Amino acid sequence: MSQSNTKESQSVKQDSNSSAPSPFGRKFQIFDPENETQFTDNTVHTAKYTWWNFLPVAIFEQLRRVSNFYFLFQMIMNLLPGVGVFSPVTAIIPVGLVIGIGILKDGIEDLRRHKADRIVNRKAVCVFRGKEFEQIETCKIRVGDVLVLKGNEEICADAIILASTDRDGIAYVNTMNLDGETNLKIKRVPLQLMKQLGCIPLISLKE
């Protein structure tokens, strides 16, 4: 009985170890059409508002400020009969102007964000999807796409370097937009990985 119990416990431990999550995180296949449904797209959203929620959210943001809420409370108290000191117009106009100007300012800034998002999302990028090179918008990049970047071209998505036109697999990356450093970072690609990906005709893309 004791030997059988120990064997069963050992088998349970082995099964539990085999079902443990992978230490490498998520896995995916390149050139796999199913990635489009399993992962989100590459669209950039930095704007705070949309056309349908702008007014209520902007008013709420204005009233979150202590000063605006205090003056609004004073205006409401001044409108109560027997309590107000000033006329309703005198009480409403200053508060309305302050909140209205704040909403207008937020709206103008958010329009600029929407415009910047459109510029980034519509920027053209070259990808290799198994058979041929394609020019697509950056918002249409999917997990598993192979990006083809040339010199001084901006990296428009989270990516790892698979190959380089340099014989030693060296690539120089500028990270000034991320950390403010102007010096180039050296990234190396394992030569064995470059040989395995030799089917991608990178040499033809040399400038």
Automatic annotation (TrEMBL):
Renumbered residue ranges of the record's region Disordered: 1-24
SUPFAM superfamilies: Calcium ATPase, transduction domain A, Calcium ATPase, transmembrane domain M
Annotated ranges, domain P-type ATPase A: 123-185
Transmembrane segments: 79-104
Ranges where the P-type ATPase N-terminal domain occurs: 33-92
Residue spans of biased composition, Polar residues class: 1-21
Gene3D superfamilies assigned to the protein according to its UniProt record, in alphabetical order: Calcium-transporting ATPase, cytoplasmic transduction domain A
The UniProt record lists the keyword Transmembrane: yes
GO cellular component: plasma membrane
Gene Ontology BP annotations: phospholipid translocation
Keywords: Membrane, Transmembrane, Transmembrane helix
Tree of life domain: Eukaryota
Tagged with keyword Membrane: yes
Entry's Gene Ontology molecular function annotations: ATPase-coupled intramembrane lipid transporter activity
InterPro entries listed in its UniProt record: ATPase_P-typ_TM_dom_sf, ATPase_P-typ_transduc_dom_A_sf, ATPase_P-type_domA, P-type_ATPase_N
Name of the protein described by the UniProt record: Putative Phospholipid-transporting ATPase 1
Organism: Streblomastix strix
Lineage of the species this protein comes from: Eukaryota, Metamonada, Preaxostyla, Oxymonadida, Streblomastigidae
